[in-house]
Write a structure and sequence with these properties.
By secondary structure, the protein is of the alpha+beta class. The chain has 3 domains: 76 residues, no CATH class; 90 residues, no CATH class; 54 residues, no CATH class. It has a 6-stranded mixed β-sheet with strand order 7-1-4-5-6-8. A two-stranded antiparallel ribbon has the order 2-3. Strand 5 and strand 6 form a beta hairpin.
Length: 256
């Protein structure tokens, strides 16, 4: 009987220690107050619980950049916990590096075979004629029966193949010209280079998410939406490779 009492006392002590440990655990998160209470507290308590409209329930909590008290305690005591980095706030006129890596390959192949063939063969066996005194009658066709025969054969065959590969790699610094309400950034970048008589002008515009900007303040061009990339070249090399007006007219008319 004494052993049973000892075992019961041990169980009660163990259960009490577990409950006390759970109540003081660092993993326990503090309870959140509803948004209505926060708003009423900020307004001096003039608004009752549930909001001014009287709708019951809990409203959505605003986003918080800092961690909760329980999480901060774990970060302070743990050897492997990583503190939460608050999201970066972008402003107009901030600079972001865009890594342009545009590469595309296009291949097309076409084949066309057309053949037309038809024969026309006819012969006139009976005709009419006017006899004296305006009499209408059948002609005897004394010179033979007239006829015709026509044959047409047309065959057209063509093969076409087109292959193109473009690659454009560069880095360009863009300026934030607008920050949307959802956090998206509107970017604009211009770059001008001049080497002797050669001049290169690059213009890039687009929209990206602020979350896609890496910690080293860069973003890939493949993550930019509605991107417009324009490259203009001018100089001696461009003039040497530019077509004249005669080839342009021939390409427009396509005589062959």
């Amino acid at each position: 009987m004494r052993s049973v009492c000892v075992i019961a006392c041990l169980l009660v002590c163990t259960l009490a220690s577990e409950l006390a440990g759970q109540s003081s655990s660092l993993m326990r998160l503090p309870l959140m107050r509803p948004q209505t209470e926060l708003s009423s507290g900020s307004a001096g308590g003039s608004t009752a619980e549930g909001g001014a409209s009287g709708s019951p329930g809990f409203a959505a909590m605003p986003p918080q950049d800092e961690s909760r008290p329980g999480t901060r305690a774990i970060e302070a005591m743990s050897l492997i916990a990583i503190p939460r980095v608050p999201p970066r706030k972008f402003k107009v006129e901030d600079l972001i590096t865009i890594i342009v890596r545009q590469q595309k390959k296009y291949e097309a192949e076409a084949k066309l075979d057309t053949e037309k063939k038809w024969d026309i063969d006819g012969k006139l066996s009976e005709w009419f004629r006017f006899y004296p005194r305006n009499r209408l009658g059948s002609d005897k066709l004394s010179n033979g029966e007239p006829g015709f025969k026509f044959a047409f054969n047309n065959k057209y065959e063509t093969d076409g193949e087109n292959e193109r590969e473009d690659k454009f790699i560069t880095r360009i610094q863009a300026t934030v010209i607008d920050v949307k309400p959802n956090g998206n950034l509107v970017l604009e970048a211009t770059q001008t280079e001049k080497h002797d008589e050669e001049e290169i002008e690059i213009t890039l515009t687009g929209v990206c998410r602020s979350e896609d900007v890496t910690p080293d303040n860069s973003i890939l061009s493949t993550q930019v939406a509605r991107m417009v990339l324009i490259e203009r070249n001018s100089g001696a090399v461009r003039d040497a490779t530019k077509r004249g007006w005669i080839p342009r007219i021939l390409d427009w008319a396509r005589p062959f």
